[in-house]
Design goal:
Number of strands of chain A: 9
Distance between the termini of chain B: 39 Å
CATH superfamily of the largest domain in chain A: Fe-S cluster assembly (FSCA)
CATH architecture of the largest domain in chain A: 2-Layer Sandwich
Radius of gyration of chain A: 18 Å
CATH topology of chain B: Ferritin
CATH class of chain B: Mainly Alpha
Order of helices and strands of chain A: HEEEEHEHEEEE
Largest sheet of chain A: 4 strands, mixed
CATH class of the largest domain in chain A: Alpha Beta
CATH architecture of chain B: Up-down Bundle
Strand content of chain B: under 5%
Helix content of chain B: 55-70%
Number of domains of chain A: 2
Distance between the termini of chain A: 32 Å
Oligomer: heterodimer
Structural class of chain B: mainly alpha
Largest sheet of chain B: none
Chain lengths: ~160, ~250
């Protein structure tokens, strides 16, 4: 497969959105690890964000559907665990889309490991930009999000937590 | 280490995650506060995800066509290899947190070591899981401190929960012949080494929580060999009845 083919396929894959965060596509999220061909077969390799992420099955099915539309029946979607997905793989574009959608993007390259023991990195409110925010719970509406609120504009919001 | 032994070892890892995940799922809609309801079920989801990866791999190694669902839903209690700790009933919120705390500290140490496993798939699953276990452990440790160093009532209750569950902790870090074989094959770490770290870490949090550290007295064991407490059967009955009533049903 040539680099042009690969770029073309990745472009097509941007049609596949995360069903739980529909502003992001699978390429933005960094879950597409490889596209390759084996004879007539096209193989797309993806990695899960979280072990139990219920969106993965839907994502695989949607990738198959989109790829079949362009390349016929010979499409396989493989899942690999290694190397494990990290929020650092979210593209800058994806971070901006998240913010516009009302979800605070993860701090780049700084896994907030000590968050709950008080030494938290500031998380800016996606609505008003204030860093005067407070974590309500490390667990939110999906595995990948924590629940925050803004002390300035009083809006509750989701934070895409670092892993 | 034979393939059968390796399969058995993987069942231990997978069943711990599956059974604890199912237990936490019982909290869905019953959490003491909305945030905790969501937290416990989020953790449940992570654990079930880990169980899916491990049991899928175990089934492939076994080579008898059993997938994750066959292993989860069509085995009886004596075929489960989880430790006794994880099958203990939820009790009140403090009991659940104490159980989680004791397990999380073990799982965190274990997965850290399993990342260096000679088995690539085990290492990959461990590297994925450790990220999740890290915040599970943070969540449960924080609650231990908050409850222990909280009110007189919360202190007394969480102390009792820790005391009640302590006899199930020895099984986590006491190796049997299979654990030793897995260690010799480079698949798993030496559990006796983890024991020291586990005590150190758990004691540290308990002290911070102003709680008394129970003595390591007589320890319950048997789960890893398939000899379970009476609680597991009831739990499996609920977990398995739909797939058993409608085998191979799809939606």
């Amino acid at each position: 497969m040539t680099t042009t083919d690969e770029a073309h396929i990745l472009e097509l894959l941007t049609e596949v959105k995360d069903p739980e965060i529909p502003v992001l596509n699978v390429v933005d999220m960094g879950i597409v690890r490889k596209v390759e061909s084996e004879g007539d077969k096209l193989i797309v390799t993806i990695t899960p964000t979280y072990s139990g992420c219920p969106a993965m099955d839907v994502i695989s099915a949607n990738i198959r559907t989109v790829m079949r539309k362009h390349f016929g029946e010979q499409v396989e979607v493989k899942t690999v665990l290694h190397p494990p997905w990290t929020t650092d793989w979210l593209t800058d574009d994806a971070r901006e889309k998240l913010r516009e959608y009302g979800i605070a993007p993860p701090e780049k390259g700084s896994p907030d490991k000590s968050l709950l023991f008080g030494e938290k990195a500031p998380v800016a409110c996606p609505k008003c930009g204030s860093e005067n925010t407070k974590m309500v719970s490390e667990f939110g509406s999906t595995s990948c999000k924590a629940h925050y609120k803004c002390n300035e504009c009083l809006e509750p919001f989701d934070y895409f937590k670092c892993i | 280490m034979t393939q059968e032994q390796k399969f058995e070892y993987l069942l231990r890892l997978g069943d711990n995650a599956l059974i604890l995940g199912q237990r936490l799922g019982e909290w869905c809609g019953h959490g003491p506060a909305l945030e905790e309801d969501i937290a416990l079920t989020n953790i449940s989801l992570d654990l079930i995800g880990q169980a899916r990866s491990i049991l899928t791999y175990a089934g492939e190694l076994e080579g008898k066509g059993r997938d994750e669902d066959k292993l989860a839903f069509f085995r009886d209690a004596h075929d489960f290899r989880n430790v006794l700790l994880v099958e203990q009933p939820n009790g009140h919120f403090g009991d659940t947190i104490a159980r989680q705390f004791l397990y999380d500290h073990f799982a965190w140490l274990l997965f850290n070591e399993l990342m260096q496993s000679s088995d690539e798939q085990v290492a990959a699953i461990a590297a994925k899981s450790i990220k999740e276990v890290t915040y599970h452990r943070r969540h449960s440790s924080e609650w231990i401190i908050r409850l222990g160093d909280g009110t007189e009532e919360s202190h007394a209750k969480i102390q009792q929960s820790i005391n009640d569950l302590w006899m199930y902790t020895g099984e986590l870090y006491t190796p049997d012949a299979l654990d030793e074989a897995a260690h010799a094959a480079g698949i798993a770490p030496d559990l006796t080494k983890l024991a020291d770290y586990w005590h150190e870490n758990v004691h540290g949090v308990l002290k911070q929580a102003t709680l008394d550290i129970p003595e390591d007295g007589w320890m319950q064991k048997g789960g890893k060999q398939g000899i379970h407490s009476e609680h597991l059967g009831f739990m499996l009955a609920e977990m398995q009845h739909i797939p058993r009533a409608y085998p191979d049903a799809q939606w």
